[in-house]
Structure formats: structure tokens, C-alpha cells
């Protein structure tokens, strides 16, 4: 699966289809933190590292919508200025990936009344990631059987 390389447009099939990571293997998830604030709060963005060397960046906009696009791992996003004030770090609430990573079974985008994405759900074998846009990015992982839909 290709998300995009430097200088290329993203190859994530997102127009009209939210299932943009099916079959990918997530081998790591890192937060993008503004260092002067420390790592006490939520990250400004999260980057999903894929087994094929690609990455996917989820970040929030000023209107609290969630943007999904190609990452540039191991480089920080362009908006991390000055770059010395930013860092990638583990998100303490997330588990370590299993051997071989999490295989994505399905992805969903939840939209607001304007049709803007405000939440992404990445279902994997063994659980799901929920990423919510806001003032910062909120991310959680819940365990479940083979990424089955959660109730409630």
C-alpha cells in the first residue's frame, strides 16, 4: 500500500471512500508534541508508521476538523516551526504494537453536519484506534476481537 512519497500527491484512496488503510500493517504510532509544553497533554498530531516504510499523519485544523494525509517519517511535519521546538514521542496511553504490527481490517471517518471529518476509527485485528480532532488530537486504543465494531 502506498500513501505517498516526498514530492508526490498522496495515494490514499480517500475520495468517497474512507477505507483507506485496509490491509496495511501499523508498526508504530507516535505523537507530535510541542516540547515547551511537555508531553503531559495530547499531541498536536499522530503519525501511524506502516510496515512498508510509509506513514500516515492525522492532525487537527483550527476549526477542529481532522486531516488525514501522508506522513514524512522520520521528518517532522512542515508546520513544526521552529523544528527544534517539536518532537516525535510515544503516546503513553497506547500499547506497544504486537510482533509484526496491527493489521488494519477497516477504517471509518465520522463527519460533522458540514461533512467535515472530525473522527477517524482505524479497526485492526485485536482492537481499534480512535483519533478525534479538536484543539489537539485525542487518540485512544481499545482492545476488541479482530477489530469488530464497538457498541454504543
Mean pLDDT: 83
Strand content: 35-45%
Number of domains: 1
Q: Output the structural class.
A: mainly beta
What does the oligomeric state look like here? single chain
Task: Report how far apart the termini are.
Answer: 32 Å
Number of helices: 0
Describe it for me?
The protein has one domain. The protein has 152 residues and is mainly beta. It has strands at 25-34, 45-50, 55-60, 66-70, 86-90, 102-111, 117-124, 127-132, 138-143. Strands 1, 2, 3, 4, 5, 6, 7, 8 and 9 form a nine-stranded antiparallel sheet that branches. It has no helices and nine strands. The radius of gyration is 15 Å and the shape is globular.
Looking at this protein, list some descriptive labels:
about 150 residues, mainly beta, 9-stranded antiparallel β-sheet, 9 strands, about 40% strand, disordered N terminus, disordered C terminus
List the helices and strands and how they pair.
Layout: E1 25-34, E2 45-50, E3 55-60, E4 66-70, E5 86-90, E6 102-111, E7 117-124, E8 127-132, E9 138-143
Antiparallel strand pairs: 1-2, 1-5, 1-6, 2-3, 3-4, 6-7, 7-8, 8-9
Amino acid at each position: 500500500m502506498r500513501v505517498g512519497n516526498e514530492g508526490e500527491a498522496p495515494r490514499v484512496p480517500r475520495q468517497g471512500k474512507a477505507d483507506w488503510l485496509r490491509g496495511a500493517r501499523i508498526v508504530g504510532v507516535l505523537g507530535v508534541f510541542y516540547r515547551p509544553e511537555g508531553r503531559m497533554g495530547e499531541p498536536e498530531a499522530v503519525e501511524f508508521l506502516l510496515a512498508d516504510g510509509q506513514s500516515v499523519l492525522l492532525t487537527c485544523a483550527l476549526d477542529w476538523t481532522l486531516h488525514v494525509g501522508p506522513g514524512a517519517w522520520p521528518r517532522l511535519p512542515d508546520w513544526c516551526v521552529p523544528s527544534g521546538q517539536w518532537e516525535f514521542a510515544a503516546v503513553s496511553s497506547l500499547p506497544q504494537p504486537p510482533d509484526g504490527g496491527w493489521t488494519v481490517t477497516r477504517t471509518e471517518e465520522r463527519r460533522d453536519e458540514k461533512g467535515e471529518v472530525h473522527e477517524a476509527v482505524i479497526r485492526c485485528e485485536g482492537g481499534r484506534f480512535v483519533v478525534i480532532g479538536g484543539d489537539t488530537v485525542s487518540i485512544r486504543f481499545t482492545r476488541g476481537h479482530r477489530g469488530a465494531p464497538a457498541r454504543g
